[in-house]
């Protein structure tokens, strides 16, 4: 925007300067030519007195004295046909002047100034002075150079002033853009200076600050509601724990208590995540995915499901927290176990490009599944939405299609961890 404003001013000033300087340059050229012609006419008129009064010998000496300066040669055509001065043939302009009056004729290499002397006994004499093109344009080049430098200087000053004015407008807008990017990145404490820039920019800054404050309030309110809802789950979990402890089968009780403890940990994580803001979340995707596969493998063995895994040999850092990635893997594998028959194979792949793939050999599901609240099997439709939001929060994507095993294939692309 800054350079566009400067370019606009430069174009406008160029047109104005051309409209002013071009006519002025032509005027200066005309003034220079008129000055040279006027000097030649004065010179010819001064010789006219000698032509009318002096004898031929004195006239010849006077013409020779004038022609010492050969820049403007002078020739006198007497009525009797005598030519005094440089031997220049009688031009049509000389004949015309002898019949009419004083005149000047333009030529390609200069201008011919003709002054008539009337009242001689023999007739009319003509004094011819030729003004070369160099004299007609003497000083014009220097004047044009001065005008060109003046135009360039005025243009530079105008562009500099326009650039300063553009900076006054663009800098506050860039500040607004920086604040907007910070807000989009989660820094809800950033505010735009409301007293900088034109009134319109200040109004936008004030509106942006109000929007940021409103977003922060709404987000804080939502975090508190999530934390409260999660906390309400403590009571039924406590009842479930008491029921599990009352079971006679100690092995079964231990298994259920382990599940209750895992659920309690999950609820605690939700409450902590809802009440704090985390910067640059990260985890080792290989370790998290491997741990969740081990958890689901127990159920897979009970259902006689073949589980194929392909994980990297070393750590694979990704820009997502371990809890979010674990929830994503649980949502994907939970969909497989909930919506396919027992014994249906499942495959989990995590390649070094940070692409997580979960597929099964089931019947597949509606391609529209994955949108929030949309399910192809009568569930809430939130499982794939959790995975999608996890991928998008990490700067990745989620796609759903049919895989080589014949059933559904969900591909989650994560992004690498980058330092600020």
From TrEMBL:
Membrane topology: Multi-pass membrane protein
Membrane-traversing stretches: 143-162
Segments forming domain Histidine kinase: 228-418
SMART domains membership: HAMP (SM00304), HATPase_c (SM00387)
Reactions catalysed according to its record: ATP + protein L-histidine = ADP + protein N-phospho-L-histidine
Listed Gene3D superfamilies: 1.10.287.130, Histidine kinase-like ATPase, C-terminal domain (3.30.565.10)
Coiled-coil features, chain-numbered ranges: none
Keyword Transmembrane: yes
UniProt key word Phosphoprotein: yes
Protein name, as recorded: Signal transduction histidine-protein kinase/phosphatase MprB
Native organism taxonomy: Bacteria, Bacillati, Actinomycetota, Actinomycetes, Micromonosporales
């Amino acid at each position: 925007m800054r350079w566009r404003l400067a370019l606009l001013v430069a174009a406008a000033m160029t047109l104005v300067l051309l409209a002013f300087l071009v006519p002025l340059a032509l005027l200066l050229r005309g003034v220079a030519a008129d000055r040279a012609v006027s000097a030649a006419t004065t010179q010819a008129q001064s010789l006219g007195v000698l032509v009318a009064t002096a004898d031929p010998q004195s006239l010849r000496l006077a013409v020779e004295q004038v022609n010492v300066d050969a820049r403007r040669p002078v020739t006198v055509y007497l009525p009797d046909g005598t030519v005094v001065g440089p031997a220049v043939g009688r031009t049509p302009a000389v004949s015309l002047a002898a019949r009419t009056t004083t005149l000047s004729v333009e030529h390609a290499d200069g201008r011919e100034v003709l002054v008539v002397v009337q009242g001689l006994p023999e007739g009319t004499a003509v004094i011819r002075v030729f003004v070369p093109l160099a004299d007609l344009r003497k000083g014009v080049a220097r004047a044009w150079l001065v005008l060109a430098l003046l135009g360039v200087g005025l243009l530079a000053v105008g562009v500099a002033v326009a650039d300063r004015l553009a900076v006054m407008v663009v800098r506050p807008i860039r500040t607004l853009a920086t604040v907007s990017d910070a807000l989009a990145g989660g820094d809800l404490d950033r505010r735009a200076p409301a007293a900088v820039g034109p009134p319109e920019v200040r109004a936008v800054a004030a509106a942006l600050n109000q929007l940021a404050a409103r977003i922060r309030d709404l987000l804080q309110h939502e975090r508190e509601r999530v934390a409260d809802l999660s906390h309400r789950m403590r009571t039924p979990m406590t009842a479930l724990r008491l029921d599990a402890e009352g079971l006679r089968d100690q092995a079964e009780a231990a298994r259920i208590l382990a599940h209750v403890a895992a659920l309690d940990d999950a609820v605690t994580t939700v409450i902590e995540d809802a009440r704090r803001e985390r910067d640059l979340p990260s985890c080792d995707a290989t370790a998290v995915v491997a741990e969740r596969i081990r958890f689901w493998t127990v159920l897979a063995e009970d259902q006689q499901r073949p589980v194929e895994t392909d994980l990297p040999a070393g750590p694979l850092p990704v820009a997502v927290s371990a809890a979010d990635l674990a929830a994503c893997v649980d949502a994907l594998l939970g969909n497989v176990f909930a919506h396919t028959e027992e014994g249906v194979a499942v495959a989990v792949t995590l390649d070094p490009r940070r692409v997580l793939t979960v597929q099964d050999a089931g019947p597949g599901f509606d391609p529209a599944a994955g949108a929030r609240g949309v399910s192809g099997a009568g569930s809430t439709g939130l499982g794939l939405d959790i995975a999608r939001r996890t991928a998008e929060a990490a700067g990745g994507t989620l796609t759903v299609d049919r895989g080589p095993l014949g059933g559904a294939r969900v591909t989650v692309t994560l992004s690498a961890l980058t330092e600020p």
